[in-house]
Amino acid sequence: MKLNLLSCEAQRPDRRAIAKCMVEISKNISESLANELTDILLEGNAVDIAVSDKNSGSALRALRKLDIDYEIVE
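and the corresponding structure tokens:
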């Protein structure tokens, strides 16, 4: 499943938690790439990530907990 992360609505976003979440839920994102994608997301740009289907439910819950708006692409 592909997700388009649109924005983070948290008042004080936790960069480390967002990057860690991306590493845990995605198929092929390294820690350094997750840090870069987190910076891009917090600057207001959308980010695409691929999530394994078996983790999709927990991935969506984790993103909602971090106040990240997303849309499901596939």
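(Above: one complete record from the training split.) The CA atoms of residues 23 and 29 lie 6 Å apart.
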